[in-house]
Amino acid sequence: MSVDDLADLYNDPIGTATLAAGEIAAITGLPKHDIAIVMGSGWIDACTALGIPSHEFDAHVIAGFVPPSVVGHSGKIRSYQLEGDTGPLNLLVFLGRTHLYEGKGLEPVVHPVRTAVKAGCSVVILTNASGGINSAFQVGQPVLIRDHISLTATSPLIGADFVDLTDLYNKRIREIVKHEDPSLQEGVYVHWRGPAYETPAEIQMMRTIGADLVGMSTVPEAIAAHALGAKVLGISLVTNAAAGITGEKLNHKEVIEAGKASAGRMGELLKAVIPKLL
Q: Is-catalytic flag, 135?
């Protein structure tokens, strides 16, 4: 993406998302996609359960997208044609994301989900790797996001855009997923800017204010997608115990490895629930 392209994204984010959606439609030959998934750190292998995509291409060739800069995020976009409970559905999958800590600003972070909504997606599934604050959560366990706490003091919304976030992580969709897998638990996710991991004292603060999970993504995307009318499902994979919980040090390689180890379960869960979400 050139400097001029990035300026266009900031000057007209919704217009750029609309343009990007049109480019995806031209590449895939599909005028509309129905559901989008953003694959977080370590989640890419979960795509195997979805079958063979009809199309795969580099995200950065699409208007407004920037190349990935984080290990575990491939920077590809895939399109799948699946059979849903109410008929065929088109699935748009982003293999990775841009994070706030990358220093590119907030618009590149939320551009993929805005593009997905403009491409027709009425449901956006946001996955991530997280640190477990709640000591009842185990490494490798998926947790549905029930609510969040933002500790970044940032929002993708600008101006007098007063959006109700009471049901940001859609309750009906969470119930569908829990019906498929009754063992799933729910939790409150904290958005931490990063890239430094939290200190033990910061984790204690988060626990005190009601947090169960902590990570460096998802919240801006959830707000941006919800503000455009999409229903949001958030799924965190606990890839490590948060700082100070066990006394062990944290590193990104272990996060990726824990995600890969649970990829099969995650993929089967997504394959089972996606057809039921529309």
A: no
